[in-house]
Design brief:
Structural class of chain A: mainly beta
Largest sheet of chain A: 5 strands, mixed
CATH class of one domain in chain B: Mainly Alpha
Shape of chain B: extended
Strand content of chain B: 5-15%
Largest sheet of chain B: 2 strands, antiparallel
CATH architecture of the largest domain in chain A: Alpha-Beta Complex
Number of helices of chain B: 8
Oligomer: heterodimer
CATH topology of the largest domain in chain A: Sulfite Oxidase, Chain A, domain 2
Distance between the termini of chain B: 76 Å
Largest interface: A-B, 119 and 96 residues
Distance between the termini of chain A: 21 Å
Number of helices of chain A: 7
Radius of gyration of chain A: 23 Å
Chain lengths: ~425, ~220
């Protein structure tokens, strides 16, 4: 993280949204002066035949949604192969992230693996080391479907030193939430027979970083899944096709993609991604390690810098909340920078360790707003402010920034990432 | 049919029906992994040295290799080029506003250096280095961080466990040190007297912009 740098040239944000902010606001109830040509004139799509049923054998979004894509922040990383893209949270609704919009983090590029050539090994402190083909994996009894969020530990990591990026896609977009199909990792470990001395497992990927993470055996035997499908179809290559690990509620880096091996051992392996990276440097120079769990967090996705308010009168505030500790119990929203709060409406399925969707229906008269959301989970944890977090951790942590986000909404409807006292 | 004949018939019928596997039973899927297969994939090295192969490498051999295979990204002396990781220096910087987290200043264990180089380096040509080459590169990086003299030869036999900063790592303690975040009744009304904006993202203005491309204008640190 850097100290703020003042650029010599400011520019108007334009994230592909026509007239983002500063647009003429529509009055609450507009009276039509002349008949709407879209109604009184015949439109071409009403008159002429459209494409046939299989013009696109694999369907894609409407061409009018072409701005709804993952985006990068190029200055963050040294190469495109070891980098991250961000989920466009401001353009999504409900709780499920579409497969093609799930953020991507690679450490050695996207491995493209023929499932017929993929092998999954269990070794180490087991009675019998085993090798499974993908066909074997899918024949394992005990298949489950589970909705979980996956959040990178570095999500909001650029914001430790202050507001930096304008858009929830960039401040909070290292997260996605899908339904996984797979089998508990426990089934494979039981098949190999874990030694009573086993305390940890090492999960390893087949990509060019051979990604490895140590995971306590207790977690591996609890709710970890070996998954081959997301949202009903095969994993996307960028999400670990043909096989990935699911580690519910814990930091995304542990959800090893292209999963090829799980080793059982009696102590952690201190791999690069659990020592040099994904440890939390505190103000006193010491570092927390094994900070696996993702604490409760939320963000208002609409309005936000990429999704300004366009009309006075009735509006819908929307956002997402999640907690690695369990189920979201309540989300409060403030419109005045945290002075006063009201409880939002959580709508739709609300699963443990999954994203919940919340709404506040409100009337906007054009006044300035300072929007915040505050998540609470069933462990009693309440999402802290950024200043509260800094009080305990300083500003050098990079990871696990779950502080409350503030969007300043101006009278013209445009929104900006700010911090407040 | 006699009683025993009936029992035999029932057993025979049951054997033909699919049997639901119970949790305690082995399913019988997969096959035993061969020692050669485990050896090919199980390349991890632990802080206690478990997993280190036979072999050795000197600081001077490591230096030559480093200049050929590593310095284009990491710099001749591990100082890092562009945004590629800095590998040496940074001692005493961890409490500062710009902590430099290198092998010498931050990493807890020597084994991680060996494991990661062997596993994932050089970037784009992973797992191409021999054990001797990996020992040599590890020795050179230790030397760059003033941990061993320039005539040092590293092997399994003299492989050091801890790096200087090891003592400053401790396990996650959020549930006790941050217990103030478990609040029974968070404030709902008049929670503070006044609210002032203390920081604007637009002051920094580093958000990606499709219309313009100010690649020369960027803050100095990124995500890891």
């Amino acid at each position: 993280m850097s100290e703020p740098v003042t650029l010599n040239r400011r520019r108007v944000l334009n994230l592909g949204i026509a007239g983002a902010g500063a647009a003429a606001l529509t009055p609450a109830l507009a009276a039509a002066q002349t008949p709407d040509p879209l109604i009184v004139e015949k439109q071409e799509w009403t008159q002429y035949l459209g494409e046939g049923v299989n013009a696109k054998p694999y369907g894609v979004p409407s061409k009018f949604e072409k701005e709804v894509v993952r985006r990068e922040v190029e200055w963050l990383t040294a190469s495109r192969q070891s980098s991250v893209s961000f989920t466009p949270l401001h353009a999504l609704d409900g709780i499920i992230t579409p497969n093609g919009l799930c953020f991507v983090r690679h450490h050695g590029g996207e491995a493209e693996i023929d499932p017929a050539k993929h092998r999954f090994m269990i070794n180490g402190m087991v009675d019998k080391p085993l090798v499974f083909t993908m066909e074997d994996v899918k024949r394992m009894p005990g298949r489950v479907n589970r909705v979980y969020f996956l959040e990178c530990a570095a999500n909001s990591g650029m914001e430790w030193r202050g507001a930096q990026l304008n858009g929830c896609q960039f401040t909070h977009g290292m997260i996605h939430n899908v339904v996984y199909t797979g089998v508990p990792l426990k089934a494979f470990l039981n098949e190999a027979g874990v030694s009573p001395k086993g305390k940890w497992v090492l999960a390893e990927g087949a990509d060019a970083s051979a990604m490895t993470r140590s995971i306590p055996l207790e977690k591996a035997m609890d709710d970890c899944l070996v998954a081959w499908a997301m949202n009903g179809e095969a994993l996307r290559p960028e999400q670990g096709y043909p096989l990935r690990l699911v580690v519910p509620g814990w930091e995304g880096n542990m959800w090893v993609k292209w999963l090829r091996r799980v080793e059982v051992g009696d102590q952690p392996w201190a791999q690069r991604e659990e020592t040099s990276k994904y440890t939390d440097l505190l103000a006193d120079g010491r570092s927390r390690q094994h900070t696996f769990l993702m604490d409760a967090k939320s963000v208002v996705t609409n309005p936000s810098p990429q999704a300004p308010l366009k009309s006075k009168g009735p509006n819908v505030l929307s956002g997402v909340a999640w907690s690695g500790r369990g189920t979201i119990k309540r989300v409060d929203v403030s419109m005045d920078g945290g002075r006063n709060w009201r409880t939002a409406r959580i709508e739709g399925p609300n699963f443990p360790r999954a994203m919940a969707r919340f709404y506040v229906d409100f009337d906007w008269n054009g006044q300035e707003l300072m929007l915040q959301s505050r998540a609470m989970d069933d462990s009693g944890y309440v999402q802290p402010t950024k200043d509260e977090l800094r009080k305990y951790r300083g500003s050098n942590s990079i990871y696990h920034n779950n502080g409350i986000q503030t969007w300043l909404v101006r009278p013209d409807g445009s929104a900006e990432n700010v911090e407040v006292s | 049919m006699s009683k025993s004949a009936k029992a035999i018939a029932i057993v025979a019928l049951t054997a033909l029906m699919p049997v639901p596997a119970s949790a305690a039973d082995k399913v019988g899927l997969g096959r035993v992994a061969l020692p050669e297969e485990i050896k090919a994939w199980d390349i991890d090295v632990r802080p206690d040295g478990v997993g280190l192969p036979d072999g050795k490498g000197s600081v001077s051999d490591g230096e030559a290799l480093f200049q050929t295979k590593c310095s284009s990204c990491h710099g001749e002396f591990g100082e890092g080029a562009g945004r590629w990781p800095v590998l040496a220096g940074g001692q005493g910087s961890l409490k500062s506003d710009r902590p430099e987290k290198t092998i010498g200043s931050f990493w807890p264990y020597t084994s991680t250096v060996y494991d990661y180089i062997h596993r994932a380096m050089p970037f784009g040509e992973a797992q191409s280095l021999s054990p001797d080459e990996t020992y040599a590169l590890t020795a050179y990086l230790m030397n760059l961080n003033d941990l061993v003299p320039s005539d040092f030869v590293l092997s399994k036999e003299n492989f050091p466990k801890n790096l200087p900063n090891e003592k400053n790592f401790y396990d996650d303690d959020r549930e006790t040190t941050e217990k103030a975040f478990w609040k029974k009744d968070p404030c709902m009304a008049n929670c503070k007297e006044r609210v002032e904006i203390t920081n604007h993202a637009r002051i920094l203005d580093v958000t990606p912009d499709d219309q313009k491309d100010d690649k020369d204008q960027k803050p100095s640190a990124g995500v890891e």
